[in-house]
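Deviation from plan, reported transparently: alpha-D-galactopyranose complex.
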Amino acid sequence: MPFGYRKLSMTASFSAAYRLDGANVTMVVEVIAGTPAVRYWGPRLPDDLVLEELSALAARAEANASPAVEAPLAFTPQAGQGFPGRPGLAAHRGGLDWASYALLVDVEQGASRLAFTSRDEAHGIELVHELRLLGDVLAATTKLINRGTAALQVDHLAPPVIPLPGFVGEVIGFEGRWSGEFQLRRHQLSMGSWLRENRRGRTSHDAFPGLFAIERDANETRGLAYGFHLGWSGNHRLVVETLADGRRSVAMEALYLPGEIMLAPGEGLETPVIYSTVSDAGLGGVSRQFHAYLRARPEHQRLRAKPRPVHYNSWEAVYFDHDTAKLMALAERAAAVGVERFVLDDGWFGSRRSDRAGLGDWQVSPDVYPEGLGPLIEKVRSLGMEFGLWVEPEMANPDSDLYCAHPEWVLATPPAPKIPFRHQLALDFGRAEVRERMYLDVAALLEEYPIAYLKWDMNRDLSQPGGADGRAGATAHVKGLYEVLDRLRAAFPAVEIESCASGGGRADFGVLARTDRVWTSDSNDALDRLSIQRGFSHFFPAELMGAHVGPTRCHITGRQLSMPLRVATALFGHMGIEADLGELDAQETADLAAGVALHKAHRALIHSGALHRIDAAEGVNAFAIVAEDGSEALVSYTMVEEQRGYFAEPLRLAGLDPAADYELKVVWPPRLKAEWPLRDGGRFRGAALMQAGFQPPRLHPGTALIFHLKR
Ligand code: GLA
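Because the crystal trials were delayed, the predicted structure below was used instead.
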């Protein structure tokens, strides 16, 4: 009988506690009332800690007006245990078998893996909770198996629910819109639920499937902070629940539409992975642990094989107005400023001369490219660049050959009219024949041409996601998409794929298991991008973040920002250019070439270093990327808004070796107009740079400084 936990009735004889350790984190799982539950998830505990102490410390007496036996906040909180909050599983057979009461029957423990099997014979339900610790990141799933003799309808099923300590009372959600993704919003938790649902059928711009939960006063460098993310590219539900008894938890799950999941006897359903990590080094610690996890994945090693090539993307230069001569001239200009990969965006296929027609017809347009893409690709390659191509295989314009031949292939909810969204309808990737056709169409392009990179776009919500059989098909679509991407990856392992959905509408660890970067946002406005990229950086490292230098006047915000600022913002991601290079004046072109060269000089650091976002003054954006061994750092400091006083606050750096001396050198902008005693650099101790900080120069809003520190 485990120690300290009150009124516990153990039905099986399992050792009471299991632990997983990362370098910085510890997870302790305890079997409570026969069900596995998280006892502790937090900063690393001493190796020799007697785990029973944790339950003794948490023990409490019965409160007034409470059940005689407190139902555990288990991995799957269960209706059958009388859990007073949201259950982790809601399923039934025609209204029966709804009160699941699965108890632990088996535990498997590996080096960094735990699996718990629980069974409810009476209701024909089996649950398998699997936890893996990958570095400092927990990756956990729940699998439900229908052990009954009739179909089981599943309304929801959460990956393991993770408790939060009561003193973690604030949630940071990530919200936004097209061209304004990854904006942070803080919420104080109170009794009840913080709920975020996404029914857009893709990861979405407005309800990113991730959150941070922090203790009072935690900031970028200090305090306890948790990060959570659901690796899933479809509908989802995020719930942070606070019960009247003080218990608090995070559940993240795929959101199933009515009747969407029906399990035949013997059939199983596995949830997407919930990822979580925790740090007492504030929000920055959490982000660095997520980054380290993503970088350690075997699939990430593809990106390590060579430096991330600088991109040129044709979209904002030509839109749908493709002309080989103009594109070849752009390719020449791109190569001249240092570009290494030329990506031909939308408009090259079928009748796609605007966004009103042609989607679905993945054959090179003979009107625009009478000799196919060959001549353009040859030109690009002769200039020493790789070639990339835009596709959007999940979609069809009603005005397309594909739709005329197969109007039944789109998702729809008859008799409601099919409501177009950017003049297009979504194909049903739940259908095998649709997946086969789109696989073959894309594969044919990859076989015919030397294509190094696909920009895989997805420009509408699945807002009427009815499948052929009349059932909801949003989940099947996402699984179908994953299948097609996996198949392409297996057949064309050298081809890199970007995940784009009207900008950053499909950025998550699920799609990133089969793609190599994300198009972060359609906004190339360098100031808006600062906050978008900062939000994105909470979960993803720089090398996965597409970041482009846009035209002189931003096409989306109409704002005119200097080339040095545009460079300074794009330089800290997987850098690219998306502008008509013929429209830039000589100074802008020279600054752009210098910016690309600066990126190349430092990209090994940017794409591998540890990110330290800095809590700077309001109206200032600052961060440092520090080499893993502390030997160098690149610091970005941008004046976003005019400051109240004559001088901005001192900037304290982070992440440096306090004992080392660093050579500080201003490397950007090319022409710094401000007077600044430090403009010629200097030599400073890490501790001084971090504890005293330095006085930045007076800068106009819209000015960015980059400096390099070398130990
Ligand atoms: C989406 C993408 C853009 C561009 C267009 C093309 O909006 O986010 O980058 O590719 O589609 O139609």
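The mean pLDDT is 96. We consider this an acceptable substitute for the interim report.
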